Amino acid sequence: LRAIARELGCSPSTISYEVKRGTVSLYHGKQRRYKADHGQSVYQANRYHCGRKSGFLKKSDFIEYVNKHFSEDDWSLDVCVNRSLAIGEFSSNQTVCTRTLYNYVDQGLMDSRNCDLPEKLKRNTKIHRIRK
Q1: Domain segments of the chain: what residues?
Q2: What would the pLDDT profile of 43-65 be if each residue is shown by its tens digit?
Q3: What does the alpha-carbon distance between residue 77 and residue 114 come to, in Å, rounded to a whole number?
Q4: How far apart are CA 89 and CA 107, in angstroms?
Q5: pLDDT tens per residue across span 71-96
Q6: Considering only CA atoms, which of 104, 75, 101 is closest in space to residue 87?
Q7: Which of the residues 37, 89, 102, 112 has the least number of beta carbons within 10 Å of its own beta carbon?
């Protein structure tokens, strides 16, 4: 492992991890061999499962509630969040914050668009730099 690492210019532990990832059992577990394709598939599966998961699908009931009241009752996103918590229709772990709702709108995950948010269009988001 150290010779391979020296040749590739990386850490020996990196080579060790790759060998562990790509090792498969052959002939009813009697022999073990390294297969690069298996190592790559295990790597991709691990990458798929890492990172923080979005709460969009888990909190779909709350998102439907926001879409309904935003379109029919003309509530703002902030009002939707606060009223749902004040009335007790949703608990705090069933909702997302207002900033997250605006991020969902920016990503196109919700029915509403940025053009439906008049206050957001009025805001000047340009960065003002002062010359030195």
Answers
A1: 2-49, 60-122
A2: 999 999 998 877 788 888 999 99
A3: 12
A4: 26
A5: 888 888 889 899 999 999 988 888 98
A6: 75
A7: 37
